[in-house]
Amino acid sequence: MFLRRSGSLSLVLRPTTFAISPFSTATAASETTHKGREEFRTGESDPANHDQSHLARFYTVPADVQKQIYLHGGYPKTFERQIKTFTESCLMVRQPAVEIIDYLRRTDFQRPANRFVLYGKDGTGKSLVLAHLLHYGFKQEFVLVHVPWVPNWMKRPKETANSSSHEGQLDLPLDGAAWLSHFKHQNAKLLTKLDLKVSREYVWSKRETTPAGASLLELVEHGINRVKFSCNAIAALLGELRQQSTEGKLKTMVVIDGFNAFFHPHTRILAENKVRVTPDKLTLTKPFLDITAPSWSNGVCILAVDRMALTEDRMESELPMYLLRREGFEHLDPFVPVRVDNYSEEEFHSCVQYYLNRKWVQITKPGFDKELEFLSGRNPFKLMQLCASL
User: Fold this and answer.
1) From residue 77, how far is each of 45, 84, 149, 388 by CA, in Å?
2) Are 63 and 147 part of one and the same domain?
3) Could you tell me the residue range of the domain that residue 276 belongs to?
């Protein structure tokens, strides 16, 4: 047991156990087991049914869904640790997610793909809103094209290699193969059900080809098994998805976090002459820019821009115009900006009640929630940090 004190704030925090502390009061226990549970939870676990009546409440992501769509990314690392501790995956239903879900219900998918851009200050929960929308896309049988965090490719690639098909560009073969594994894990069941075929022959080398009419999953597996060709396989896959979505064979949802990293002036990757490589010199960049362009239909793009996605010093503003720069802004224009703010008073109350319910926070004095509110400014990430284990 650890005791954390901040000013007059006194909280008992437990990193791995939920046993009731002698410091907890009978009043708090009654609140969390009866009234609190009704206030902060909703029994509606299907995001397609979430609306204004579910705002500021937590819903439980089923364990099988969590393993299928978030196993290789989608949750921030700090949130993943919290899930392991709480032994359940719960997401709060927030206004930005409900707003976009409502837009999607009324979308005419025969028109060019709409682009939504989430933005907001650091730590407001943009990644978790994306996770909520990813679950929505999964339940609505969209093929998911999900990049959990673009800066991982720009800042810390696993390996780089000169591209054999694009002179002067670099492949990220291991990162490409890892992304294809992520794509397959999320979509294998749906792709098998849809029985999609590649529209043309793809030649990888003198001895290796993927013939026209082969399963789309064969294309994916080739990129996984032959890491050398993983980036080319991604380009072929995303091209097929754009074409076949437009033909009405499937629906595609593109979800990318840290999208503005594609438009930063430099990466942290050094070329042979020790000069920093620009994002456009990576073969992974163009396929994801193509699929976020309005040149195809029967799909949607939901993107998040973030100051932490930049490879250099963070910019002062969190607005899309600044983070995307002129090139990125013009690439997405027109798009629908959706702001993600700090918790509202109701959301903050629900989050504190959830922590109390999981015995993660145990009160020692009245008014502790007001002090938490003051210290965190209702910022979701700061609140999580204040309530984290020592």
Assistant:
1) 23, 11, 11, 13
2) no
3) 95-339
Q: What share of the chain is helix, strand, coil (3-state, %, to 5)?
A: 45, 15, 40
- Quote the distance between the C-alpha of residue 197 and its chain's center: 28
- Per the listing, tokens 């682009």 go with 115
pTM beyond cutoff 0.70:
yes
| Rounded Cα distance, 269 and 265, in Å | 12
Strands ordered across the beta sheet of 9-13: 2-6, 9-13, 361-363
> Do 57 and 166 reside in the same domain of the chain?
no
Q: How many domains does the chain have?
A: 2
User: CB of 390 within 8 A of CB of 1?
Assistant: no
Burial track 246-264 (b if 16+ CB lie within 10 A, e otherwise): beebbbbbbbbbbbbbbbb
What distance in Å separates the CA atoms of residue 82 and residue 16, rounded to the nearest whole number?
A: 10
User: Sign of dihedral through CA atoms 233, 235, 239, 245?
Assistant: positive
Give exposure, 68-82, as e/b (b: 16+ Cβ within 10 Å): ebbeebbbbeebeeb
Phi, psi of 258 (to 5 degrees): 70, 35
**Interior CA angle at 143 toward 138 and 146, to 5°?**
80
Q: Rounded to an integer, what distance in angstroms lies between the CA atom of residue 143 and that of residue 183?
A: 9
Q: Establish whether the linkage from the previous residue to 334 is cis, with ω within 30° of 0.
A: yes
Residue with tokens 């410091």: 23
Four-CA torsion 320, 326, 330, 333, nearest 10 degrees: 20
Backbone angles phi, psi at 11, to 5 degrees: -125, 145
Q: Which of 235, 294, 247 shows the shortest CA–CA distance to 116?
A: 294
* Sequence letter at residue 250: L
φ, ψ dihedrals at 303, nearest 5°: -125, 150
Q: Which residues contact 175 (CB under 8 A, 6 or more apart)?
A: 152, 153, 157, 158, 159, 284
Specify whether 321 is located in the same domain as 361.
no
| Distant-in-sequence, close-in-space partners of 211: CB < 8 Å, separation ≥ 6 | 198, 201
Walk along the chain (390 residues) in steps of 10 and give the mean pLDDT of each run: 38 36 34 52 94 95 94 92 92 97 96 97 96 97 97 93 91 97 96 95 93 96 96 97 97 97 91 90 96 96 93 77 94 97 96 90 81 93 84
**Residues in CB range of 35: below 8 A, 6 or more apart:** none
Do residues 140 and 105 share a domain?
yes
